[in-house]
């Protein structure tokens, strides 16, 4: 039971760090003044590429958040049983 607790704890830390990294990699909804200036160029040069990367990062964030929640519940149950 102690080994399972360590494995779930390591996975929990990995998912926590991945959520932090993925969220920091995502672009903001409002890019400010530089986003409004570069917005015209973005319509000609690969606007869809940015959308797909943001969509992919959004999916990774959702997966990491769900995995973080599952490992949180698993840790609670393992700590409650072990004491």
Structure description:
- The chain is mainly α.
- The protein has one domain (2-82).
- 88% of the residues lie in helices and 0% in strands.
- It has 3 helices and no strands.
- It has helices spanning 2-25, 32-44, 47-82.
- The radius of gyration is 19 Å and the shape is elongated.
- The N and C termini lie close together (11 Å).
- The relative contact order is 0.18.
- The model has no long low-confidence stretch (mean pLDDT 82).
Topology overview:
Elements: H1 2-25, H2 32-44, H3 47-82
Helix pairs in contact: 1-3
GO molecular function: protein-transporting ATPase activity
Keywords: Cell membrane, Membrane, Protein transport, Translocation, Transmembrane, Transmembrane helix, Transport
Transmembrane segments: 6-25, 57-79
Average residue pLDDT: 82
Secondary-structure element order, N to C = HHH
Count of discrete structural domains: 1
Q: What is the percent of helical residues?
A: over 70%
Q: Would you tell me the structural class of the helices and strands?
A: mainly alpha
Contiguous helical run count:
3
Regions with pLDDT < 50 over 5+ consecutive residues? none
Gyration radius (Cα, Å) is: 19 Å
Overall morphology: elongated
**Largest sheet descriptor:** none
**Proportion of residues in extended strands:** under 5%
Name its key features:
SecG, 0% strand, mainly alpha, 83 residues, transport, 3 helices
């Amino acid at each position: 039971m102690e080994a399972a607790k360590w494995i779930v704890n390591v996975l929990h830390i990995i998912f926590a760090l991945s959520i932090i990294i993925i969220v920091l990699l995502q672009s903001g909804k409002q890019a400010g003044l530089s986003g409004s200036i570069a917005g015209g160029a973005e319509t000609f040069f690969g606007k869809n590429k940015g959308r797909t990367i943001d969509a992919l990062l959004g999916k990774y964030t959702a997966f990491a958040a769900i995995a973080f929640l599952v490992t949180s519940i698993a840790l609670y149950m393992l700590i409650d049983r072990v004491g």
